[in-house]
UniProtKB/TrEMBL annotation:
Protein's name in the database: Glycosyl transferase, group 1 protein
Gene Ontology BP annotations: lipopolysaccharide biosynthetic process
Pfam hit, one: Glyco_transf_4
Start and end residues of each Glycosyl transferase family domain: 200-349
Amino acid sequence: MDIGLSCTVWANGERAGHLDGIGIYSRALWQGLDRLGQTEDMHVKPYAFGHDLPVIDCGKPEQLARDYRIHAVLSGVLKLPLSNSANIARNVRLFHATDHQIPRIKGVPVVATIMDVIPVLYPEWIKQDLKRLKSWLFTTSIERAEHIITISEYSKQDMVRHLGIAPERISVTPLGVDPVYFERIDTAERDEVLATHGLKPGFFLVVGTLQPRKNLQRVLEAFQQLPAQVRKEHPLVIVGRDGWSNEELLPQLEALQQRGEGRWLSYLPQKEVLSLLQSAGALVFASLYEGFGLPAIEAFAAQCPLIASNNSSLPEVTGDAAWAVDPHNTDSISAAMRDVLEQPEERERKVHLGLERARQFSWDACAQKTLDIYRMVLANRR
C-alpha cells in the first residue's frame, strides 16, 4: 500500500530553522508510519507544495504544485484537480494532507488532518494579511477530503457543530509526545543552560509563539498580581518567536526584563527547552483555545508542574494532572501560580499524575490509528 504524505509545513519549517505544531506532527507521523512500514505492507512517499524543496528526514518531497494558493482557487472555484494528478495516481493509492493545504487529486482519495477550526471560529486570531484568504481556503478545501482526521474529541465536536460535517466522516487520533521529553537532563547540563540565560530553578515558564490566542497579556497581568518578592524569586520566562498583533505586548516584555522579573528568550532548541521545563516551577499554558495542546503533555513528560486552561481540548488532554484555570480571568491564573509555589505536596501529586498521563500518548499509537483510517477509507471505496 503506497501512501502519499504532504510535508509542506514540515519542509518549510526545516528551511526556516524551526517547526510549529503541524510541522512536528507531520514529521512524527512520518517517522511512526515508517516504523510501521517495516512490518506492514505499506510505503509512505513525501509530497509538498512549493519550489526548491529541501531534503528532510524522509528525503526530498515530490512537488504537488509551485503555489498552493493558485491550486486552491482553481480547485475551489473551477473544481480543477492538480495538473499532475495522473502521475500521483500511478504512485499512491491514498493521499494524506497533514495540514490545511488540501489538494484535489483526480482518482486518489484524500484524507486530511484538521487540527482545529480556528480560521472559522476565531478569524481575528489569524495574521491580518492572511485572514480572509485563509478562512476562505479553509472552508473550501475541507470538501476535498474524503475523510478527516482531527486530534481531539473537542475538535471533532467543533467540526460537527460549526462546519456541519457528519461525525462518521471524522476520526480522532490524539497526538504523541517525543520520547526525549521523558529523559532527565544531566544536572550540570541543566545548570549550564540556566546560567547561559541568567536563570535559577523555580521560574514560571511560557512556551509558544507570541500571538493573541496564547493569551500572554493576561498571563503577564496575573504574574503582576504576585508579590514583588515572589516575582523576583520566581521570574516569568517566555520562550517563543514574535508572532503578530503584539504591538502592546512587546513593550511590556521589555519592561518586565528591565525590572528583573522575567526574560523573553525567543526561539530555543528543543534540548534547551527541555532543560527549562525540568527546571521550572511550572509551565503556564493559559491558552484561549487549543485543538490538542502538545506543550501540556511535553510538560507532563518532563515532570514539570502545569497550569492549564479549563477550556477547549485541554481538560480532555490534561485530566486531573494540571491546575485548571479560567484563561479569561487573571485572578484565576494568579491564584494557580501561588498554589504551585505554596502547595508542595499537591505539586508532587500532580507531577506524578502528569507523568502517567504523558505515557498514554505516543506517536506510534497515533501512526497506528492513522494507518487503520487509511485502510478503512480504501475498504469503503471497493
